[in-house]
Amino acid sequence: MLIIFEAIVLILKITWFNLVGIFRFFVPPTKKSLVGEIVLITGAGSGIGRLMAINFAKHGCTLVLWDIDKDSNDETTEIITALGGKAYGYRCDVTNKDEVYRLAEQIKEYVGSVTILVNNAGVVAGKNLLDCPDELILRSMNVNVISHFWTLKAFAPSMVANNHGHIVTISSICGVIGAPGMVEYCASKFAAVGLHESLCYEFIKEGYDGIKTTLVQPYLINTGMFDGFKAREGVAPPDLDPQYVADMVLRAVQTNQDILMMPRPLYLISWFKSWMSLGATVAGAQFTGAFNAMDTFVGRQKKHI
């Protein structure tokens, strides 16, 4: 009888939380203030990393900016300073755990404890697996997911100690569905999703209800990283505007949104994959042009990660 009662309670809970989720899909909760938060963004020298940094600065946050490209990162720092914001720029190779830990201690001493961590740095090789050099496979895995372990271990302890913080993982729709020509990229993004989700569950299990998490899974963003990518026009979604993505990430943090997919129809992807056969998903990918979209891939001529 106890198990039946618990099962009924479970069904009621599932129904309630799903209804709340649907309601919040259309009516987001009140935005929280970000004034005084210390935000660290990896890959802040260009693309949405720079735009997110500017957005957070405009809302009263102190920015800590990491990028392997010192010149571009300095430019982001100068932009924020010119706007009257407070920003600290550091050249950092996020794949080097010793460097991550060393800089983390330096930041804690001179800036303060990071309260919002945005793991944004990313790279892509853009080659078929058998044509992809080993070093590029390792590069994608190290930048796109392994580095998250180092930044999380460096900055999450202070969040746990204060039961306050927010962790943002910039993944991709490629963390939900694979595609030819980007095997190493999709693998890294799938891994980033698994890391983010499991860590979220750990926080819930341990009772750290003051630490929020946001998983960001956008379609192609028009930043140059995927230059040459060409899906079927009129069927596949259009490229996302970088400023729009940065604005939506800010809003997701302000409203403690768990998962952010862009554009909105992508929320159906996981549901479709849960019941469609492999043949059906292949047919869908071929129809949208996803199978050949990377055939003309060029990527950034100047690399920023």
Describe the structure in brief.
This protein is an alpha/beta fold. It is 49% helix and 13% strand. The chain has nine helices and seven strands.
Write the layout of secondary structure elements.
Blueprint: H1 2-26, E1 38-42, H2 47-58, E2 62-67, H3 70-82, E3 86-91, H4 97-110, E4 116-119, H5 134-162, E5 165-170, H6 183-206, E6 211-218, H7 242-254, E7 259-262, H8 267-275, H9 278-288
Parallel strand pairs: 1-2, 1-4, 2-3, 4-5, 5-6, 6-7
Transmembrane segments: 7-27
Keywords: Membrane, Oxidoreductase, Transmembrane, Transmembrane helix
InterPro entries: NAD(P)-bd_dom_sf (IPR036291), Sc_DH/Rdtase_CS (IPR020904), SDR_fam (IPR002347)
In words, what does this structure look like?
Belongs to the short-chain dehydrogenases/reductases (SDR) family. The chain crosses the membrane at residues 7-27. It comes from Saccoglossus kowalevskii (Acorn worm). The protein is α/β, with parallel strands linked by helices and 305 residues long. The chain contains 9 helices and 7 strands; from the N terminus they run H-E-H-E-H-E-H-E-H-E-H-E-H-E-H-H. The protein has helices at 2-26, 47-58, 70-82, 97-110, 134-162, 183-206, 242-254, 267-275, 278-288; strands at 38-42, 62-67, 86-91, 116-119, 165-170, 211-218, 259-262. A 7-stranded parallel sheet has the order 3-2-1-4-5-6-7, sandwiched between helices. Helix 3 (70-82) links the parallel strand 2 (62-67) and strand 3 (86-91). The protein starts with a helix and ends in a 17-residue tail after the last helix. The mean pLDDT is 92.
